[in-house]
Amino acid sequence: MTAHGSREDTIGVGRRVLQTEAEALSRLAAELDGAFAEAVEVLFAAKGRIVCTGIGKSGHVARKVASTLASTGSAAMFVHASEASHGDLGMIGPDDVILALSKTGETRELADILAYAQRFAIPLIAMTAAADSALGRAARIVLLLPNAPEAADELNAPTTSTTLQIALGDALAVALLQRRGFRPQDFGVLHPGGKLGAMLRTAGDLMHGVGELPLVVGETPMRDALLVMSEKRWGIVGVTDAEGRLVGAITDGDLRRHIDGLLDHTAGQVMTPGPKKTVEPGTLAAQALALMSDPLPAVTVLFVVEDARPVGILHVHDLLRAGVM
């Protein structure tokens, strides 16, 4: 093989590939029909698992689709079409739904899975560009891919077709996610590690508990309030009412504004009412950090409250140490 072509030629090839695939994706979006909604309902109603299968490049995509479905709250797994013929069919149960991927729909390795689905009345959803193929005819629902040219059309190597499969798999996963009422907090349970896991942790996960709260009541003399502020070392003291609700906070700025005769005042007289910035235990860590960073005003500490009563305190350093950025 002889290498040739200028830098500009190479960039041109890249743009042509991306444009070809982008046009195919636009066609897929425009042609999406009721079969997609029906497929989502069948997958949503499944009592068992969503079994994704395929061979070759479609198999790699099927594995990715299964992973995406699982990470968004759907019980899903990948079964290799060839291995299914050698015992792995036993992994597929009568309460499952099969999602089979094949551009041509004539992949012979899928034959045993198609027969198995028919024999045990297991719902079969096909993702294919050929509705009249063996796969298309065997399926209860056909998710039809546009018969768009591959990006390397002269070689017919799977490029555009696998991009379409991935995108359609993502569309199924997101539609199912919304159908299930899946929340960011649920997503965090399935992604405890790495930056994504950190972003999906909650204020309740990272906060310091009641024993570390710097709290006084409104009638507390400022001399005593300053001792609490110094002892707890948060640079803030919260002020509560008789029912334990947070009604204000005292910060360094409040101390400076009342420096004249400070010790002659009570905490209630010095505090800034509010405070305006608090979070609940279920607030995502990423949202807490965004609230801290909001310049109106930016803060480094947040009280964590339930029914207006403080249950914890959160410092920006807690979020940074946890990897929230």
Describe the structure.
With 325 residues, this protein is an alpha/beta fold. The chain has two domains: 7-182, Glucose-6-phosphate isomerase like protein, domain 1 (Rossmann fold), CATH 3.40.50.10490; 203-321, CBS-domain (Roll), CATH 3.10.580.10. The chain has 15 helices and twelve strands. A five-stranded parallel sheet has the order 2-1-3-4-5, sandwiched between helices. The protein has a four-stranded mixed sheet with strand order 6-7-8-9. Strand 1, helix 3 and strand 2 (76-80) form a beta-alpha-beta unit. The chain is elongated.
Short synopsis of the structure:
With 325 residues, the protein is an alpha/beta fold.
Detail the topology: elements first, then pairings.
Elements: H1 7-31, H2 34-45, E1 50-54, H3 56-71, E2 76-80, H4 81-84, E3 97-101, H5 111-119, E4 124-128, H6 134-138, E5 141-144, H7 160-180, H8 184-190, H9 194-199, H10 203-206, E6 215-217, H11 222-232, E7 236-240, E8 246-251, H12 252-257, H13 267-270, E9 272-273, E10 278-279, H14 285-293, E11 301-306, E12 309-315, H15 316-321
Parallel strand pairs: 1-2, 1-3, 3-4, 4-5, 6-7, 10-11
Antiparallel strand pairs: 7-8, 8-9, 11-12
Helix pairs in contact: 1-7, 2-7, 3-7
